[in-house]
Specification:
Blueprint lengths: L4 H16 L14 H28 L4 H33 L4
Length: about 100
């Protein structure tokens, strides 16, 4: 199964916009800087890193960029994606563990 970088970035952008919409059922209520704000900021940074990596790849394909900056940007995008996936896996594991707890 192949997933493009742009499709992954679009999915994260959609999730980030749900957090930002005040009337959304997925929005976290309250004000101040909390976990939701931290998560929103991290997702925004991850999306921007993915976009930068994709833009560098496109510039390399057209011959407008040097290989060092392309490799660096793509490597950063890959590392960011791996980090997001690792956090997601931990959240799913924690949720599963909580669901198996007896009350």
């Amino acid at each position: 199964m192949t997933i493009s970088v742009s499709a992954g970035a679009a999915a994260y952008a959609k999730a980030a916009t749900k957090l930002a919409v005040p009337g959304s059922t997925d929005a976290v209520k309250g004000t101040g800087s909390g976990f939701a704000d931290l998560l929103k900021s991290a997702l925004s940074d991850a999306i921007q890193t993915q976009k930068t990596g994709e833009a560098a790849s496109l510039q390399a394909a057209t011959g407008k960029s040097d290989i060092n900056s392309v490799v660096s940007a793509v490597n950063n995008a890959e590392l960011t994606l791996q980090t997001v996936l690792a956090v997601r896996d931990k959240v799913v594991a924690a949720y599963t563990e909580i669901m198996h707890m007896t009350v």
